[in-house]
Amino acid sequence: MGNRAEEAKQNQEENNGNMAIETPSIPLLTPYNMGSLNLSDRVVLAPLTRQRSYNNVPQPHAILYYSQRTTKGGLLIAEATGVSDTAQGYPDTPGIWTKEQVEAWKPIVDAVHAKGGIFFCQIGHVGRVSNQDYQPNGQAPISCTDKPLTPQIRTNGVDIAQFTPPRRLTTDEIPQIVNDFRLAARNAIEAGFDGIELHGAHGFLIDQFMKDQVNDRTDQYGGSLENRCRFALEIVEAVSNEIGADRVGIRLSPFANYMEAGDSNPEALGLYMAESLNKYGILYCHMVEPRMKTVGEKSECPHSLLPMRKAFKGTFLVAGGYDREDGNKAIAEGRADLVVYGRLFLANPDLPRRFEFNAPLNKYNRETFYVSDPVVGYTDYPFLDTSSYVTKKKH
Ligand SMILES: Cc1cc2nc3c(=O)[nH]c(=O)nc-3n(C[C@H](O)[C@H](O)[C@H](O)COP(=O)(O)O)c2cc1C
């Protein structure tokens, strides 16, 4: 046998022993420049509330959780983080309005940066999705409305979440809330984050203002589409002026009706927001797919984010029910620049690597999404044993 043939045979044998997987690059694993940030792939960690930030302070166990999910040049979005002491509605969710919280975020952000990751903080306010136990001095939660939310079954499917009827913000109070977002954005940069994502999705405060099922105001923040979006856009402007539009993204879910926040014309709402955001030149717009009617349930539907994708001039992120195949298609067809993964990334700390090898995925366990254990269901999902896979790609 000639040298070549021998080499080929040897390679083949080696490959057979190694399950012979050679990985051509897939669309999800191609690089992308988001503004001045050079991303090495299109697979983004979704903001995922994990309720392990005791007393609203991020904990050291989050260092391991986030760094497990970091790759060089990968984008991560931190879990929803409260902008003020009225912003909370769930146990042990992190905040970013006190010095202590900012200091507590620093080692977490440092760990992500040490591995070359790019880290955005999702900042938000729950509005009426709260009750007086989470509010300072037992006061009523604030919202655009005083319409109460009906009790909801919690994600564990057993407990019922009770909500205190909200207090409608007066027109004069709104600039203070906008200012809370501005300060939180400043704090996020102080903590070392590369930018912030405004939580404008899922029925929380910003979404409550935008959606006509909730917003019943008669001032300049209610009524017309333009008026309902005013609060969101004032926040976009304030945070952009504070930290630079190139460090600002926003998450929107125009089609979702989670927490009784639906809209009678979600296409018009999504399009109006996408077009309006162009005025501020923000870095990205992150939209939840219409098929996600609630946070964790997928159902096929005829609507699409394409008109918003076409209208928005910055980077477009999509989320909701994506797997490897679906995500590759979205990138290949130009329907998105980046694909955001929630539950799959939660359960697979090395998700981009598994996509590279088309390897099997760990199954997520809903039961441990929100338990307060610092390890179980949090940092104990196993990594892929890559010894049986061969790759040409360097990580
Ligand atoms: C445990 C859990 C926590 C979540 N927390 C947040 C959150 O803090 N902020 C947010 O915008 N969405 C949150 N979501 C929604 C996800 O970001 C994502 O949009 C959703 O899971 C659908 O994407 P997936 O099908 O890839 O999981 C959460 C979802 C789950 C399952």
Automatic annotation (TrEMBL):
<dbReference type="Pfam" id="PF00724">
    <property type="entry name" value="Oxidored_FMN"/>
</dbReference>
<keyword id="KW-0285">Flavoprotein</keyword>
<feature type="domain" description="NADH:flavin oxidoreductase/NADH oxidase N-terminal">
    <location>
        <begin position="28"/>
        <end position="361"/>
    </location>
</feature>
<dbReference type="InterPro" id="IPR045247">
    <property type="entry name" value="Oye-like"/>
</dbReference>
<feature type="region of interest" description="Disordered">
    <location>
        <begin position="1"/>
        <end position="22"/>
    </location>
</feature>
<dbReference type="InterPro" id="IPR013785">
    <property type="entry name" value="Aldolase_TIM"/>
</dbReference>
<keyword id="KW-0560">Oxidoreductase</keyword>
<keyword id="KW-0288">FMN</keyword>
<dbReference type="GO" id="GO:0010181">
    <property type="term" value="F:FMN binding"/>
</dbReference>
<comment type="similarity">
    <text>Belongs to the NADH:flavin oxidoreductase/NADH oxidase family.</text>
</comment>
<dbReference type="GO" id="GO:0016629">
    <property type="term" value="F:12-oxophytodienoate reductase activity"/>
</dbReference>
<feature type="compositionally biased region" description="Basic and acidic residues">
    <location>
        <begin position="1"/>
        <end position="12"/>
    </location>
</feature>
<keyword id="KW-0521">NADP</keyword>
<protein>
    <recommendedName>
        <fullName>NADH:flavin oxidoreductase/NADH oxidase N-terminal domain-containing protein</fullName>
    </recommendedName>
</protein>
<dbReference type="InterPro" id="IPR001155">
    <property type="entry name" value="OxRdtase_FMN_N"/>
</dbReference>
